[in-house]
Amino acid sequence: xxxxxxxxxxxxxxxxxxxxxxxxxxxxxxxxxxxxxxxxxxxxxxxxxxxxxxxxxxxxxxxxxxxxxxxxxxxxxxxxxxxxxxxxxxxxxxxxxxxxxxxxxxxxxxxxxxxxxxxxxxxxxxxxxxxxxxxxxxxxxxxxxxxxxxxxxxxxxxxxxxxxxxxxxxxxxxxxxxxxxxxxxxxxxxxxxxxxxxxxxxxxxxxxxxxxxxxxxxxxxxxxxxxxxxxxxxxxxxxxxxxxxxxxxxxxxxxxxxxxxxxxxxxxxxxxxxxxxxxxxxxxxxxxxxxxxxxxxxxxxxxxx
Length: 305
What we know:
The protein contains twelve helices and twelve strands.
């Protein structure tokens, strides 16, 4: 293919050739192409020179294909028609029959929250459409989208102009705990919060989390994990507390209703969870279908239960 593109042939000349062959004259072809007669004659001369053989001979007042022209025409027309059809045909997408596979990046909290609900929706409306879930976070999402993700759901900072973004959730953070093992007042003070033992999520694999970055005060961290997936199981039945996004706490408490949450005794930065996708997939119907589903799910009051 690269070799073909590199050859010295203007492919627009083939379209001119096809119209001349159909019209039978340069004058009529010029009229159909909205070009001047000299421009069409010049295009034909350039194509003849590139092919290296005459493509037409005069017949009366018109033109007839030579044997070389006949061979070129017979080969060209089916391909030219297919190219025009592909360029002008409206895209067709039927969720019920689509077998598309989409790669969606999820922050771990977003995967716990959104992926199960998305799969239920797809089971009803697009049973053959498949999802490959890829872990992302704010440090890696730009590279992951550039590498081929169809969309991503995470918190993000600055992104290239080639990435579209839409906020889909904006809840803050809460303190999650098991009241059978931890006493926590309705409005804990800083000292009461820091007196507890904590489990944190650290993407760096250390004992430092966002609270330490904000307050420059260390917590009594007993355990550090790499994702929110098992926070509920760790807190359940233990004296550990976890500082998590409220949407994550809602999902955990939907399964572990005995767990409780309390407001934090300090302000955390407002972090909006966003739906991100490459600008090049704006008109990708299956990808847009899944993006719309994610927005609907995220903004539904039922998504937190």
